[in-house]
Amino acid sequence: MNKRIAIIGAGLSGLCVARDLSAHADVVLFEKSRGVGGRMSTRYADPFYFDHGTQYFTARTQAFTDFLAPLIEEAVIGAWRGDVADLQLGQRPSLHQWSEPHWVATPHMNSLCKHLAQGLDVRLSVEVAPLSQRHNGRWLMRDRDGHDLGAFDWVVSTAPAVQTLRLLDQAMDNASPLHASRMKGCYALMIGLRQRWDHPWIAAKVRDNPIAWIAVNSTKPHRDHAITSLVVHSDNDWAEQHIDEAVEDIQPILISQFEALTGMDVRKADYLTTHRWRYALVGETGGAGFMLDPNHHTAATGDWASVSRIEEVWHNAKTLAKEILALV
Predict the structure, then answer these.
(1) By C-alpha distance, which of 261, 87, 93 is closest to 191?
(2) Considering only CA atoms, which of 307, 301, 304 is closest in space to residue 321?
(3) What are the two backbone dihedrals, phi and then psi, of residue 288, each rounded to the nearest 5 degrees?
């Protein structure tokens, strides 16, 4: 009889682990959101679409390059090209080109995760309750409302470290890389304009400001270039200082800084909203890449596990799947 493995979270980590395990076990993914993607999510506000988490990724290893090759061939992945600005209040903007290819999923960032989810058993809008009971060596899983989700030989969490610690509190050893991980938050301001983008840059790095990054999402490949979709990311340290403040108080600050940096008036934009990412970027990490507990049959990986680069997340997920396969 095949082993049953539950994976909590259907972002890139969870989907990559699931794909590698699914040929050898019965795998079910539980995702509390309405769609797959995690940090690679896309906000839909027709006609505007915002990659409000991960903006792009790079490939610096042969293994990840090989993984991307067929996706590029199938147009699931495309190169994001154009000038990038360096912005600072009181300084004249300077433009430069990226020194390496910057890849994005098309037509939206979550398209990669949707592609990887094909053929997998993904159950959306399910919030898993903390593990607490085993029967005949299997974890009996329930959702937050107490509904039975089934019995599983292994449980893998790809949720943020704080959430994983809560989920696996009674299902893991006390010492693990999870306890050493610290994540920093981020605010994402999304601006939609029913007009074509007319500035000479596709993205901007911002210095000495509550804003750290501006991306013109509508300049990415296979997007609608007749409109403008902007994602403005706050500085992570600044976000941490304001992480528990009301989003409606944060948004005017980001708008004011954006207008000062760009000279644009967006207070009457066609779409304006702000999202809080409480766990956006690794601040401190145990450096292990994943947690694996053979005694409890639990494991974890995700953005918290080493660094937040998509390539590192992918490598960690692949390595963890290989380690689990050696044990099941």
Answers:
(1) 261
(2) 301
(3) -85, -25
Peptide bond into 200 cis (omega under 30): no
Per-residue model confidence (pLDDT) at position 267: 85
Written as one letter, the residue type at 48 is F
Which residues lie across from 274 on neighbouring strands?
189
Cβ neighbors of 268 (< 8 A, separation 6 or more) are: none
Task: Report which of 203, 173, 177 is spatially closest to residue 80, judged by C-alpha positions.
Answer: 203
Tell me, what's the pLDDT at 286? 65
Q: Which residues of the chain fall below pLDDT 50?
A: none
| DSSP structure string for 161-218 | HHHHHHHTTTSS-S--HHHH-EEEEEEEEEEEESS---SS-SEEEE-SSSEEEEEEGG
Q: What is the spatial distance between Cα 8 and Cα 99, in angstroms, rounded to a whole number? A: 36
- Is 88 exposed, middle or buried (CB count within 10 Å of its CB: 0-12, 13-18, 19+)? middle
**Residue written as tokens 């290819």?**
101
Which pairs with CB-CB distance under 8 Å and at least 24 residues apart come from 56-59? 56/80, 56/102, 56/103, 56/104, 57/102, 57/103, 57/104, 57/309, 57/310, 57/311, 58/100, 58/101, 58/102, 58/103, 58/309, 58/311, 59/101, 59/103, 59/311
7 pairs with which residues across the strands?
29, 156
Query: Quick check: helix, strand or coil at residue 274?
Result: strand
CATH code of the domain containing 312: 3.50.50.60
What does the block give as tokens for 277?
A: 């990412």
Q: How many domains does the chain have?
A: 1
* Environment class of 58 (CB within 10 Å of its CB; exposed 0-12, middle 13-18, buried 19+): middle
Decide the pairing of beta strands 154-157 and 3-8.
parallel
- Cα pseudo-dihedral 320, 321, 326, 328, rounded to 10: 120
Cα(263)–Cα(265) distance, integer angstroms: 7
